[in-house]
Design brief:
Helix 1 runs antiparallel to helix 2, helix 1 packs antiparallel against helix 4 and helix 2 packs antiparallel against helix 3. This protein has 4 helices and no strands. The two termini are 37 Å apart. About 5% of the residues have low confidence. By secondary structure, the protein is mostly helical. It has one domain. The chain is elongated and about 55 Å long.
Length: 111
């Protein structure tokens, strides 16, 4: 599950940043200053990255044995600015709490 969690964390951040750029920069440029150029670039990029995000959420959810409802909520997190960051932190915290405590590689043996 470690690799799936890492893939999810990376794509969650990337999707979150691109969505913020889209909403905070590209949309105002288009509608307030009549410059639609950035929307034409950022919207398809976000759309593609969101599809990758959906696959990453599904993969992680399948490996972690999540309910379908939890997966859907996390998938929706990629559509609302800043929520993907919150979802990533919550998922990472939960995953780390569920990991069994690792023992040191070397233990002293008393005989």
């Amino acid at each position: 599950m470690g690799a799936a969690l890492t893939r999810y964390r990376v794509i969650a951040y990337v999707v979150g940043v691109v969505l913020i750029i889209f909403v905070a920069v590209a949309i105002p440029l288009k509608y307030l200053w009549d410059q639609p150029g950035l929307v034409g670039v950022v919207a398809p990029v976000h759309g593609f990255l969101y599809m990758v995000y959906l696959v990453a959420v599904f993969d992680l959810g399948r490996r972690a044995h999540w309910s379908l409802g939890r997966m859907v909520l996390l998938m929706l997190a990629g559509t609302i600015p800043f929520v993907s960051f919150y979802g990533e932190r919550a998922v990472t915290r939960t995953a780390r709490e569920r990991q069994p405590e690792e023992r040191p590689l070397t233990e002293s043996v008393r005989g």
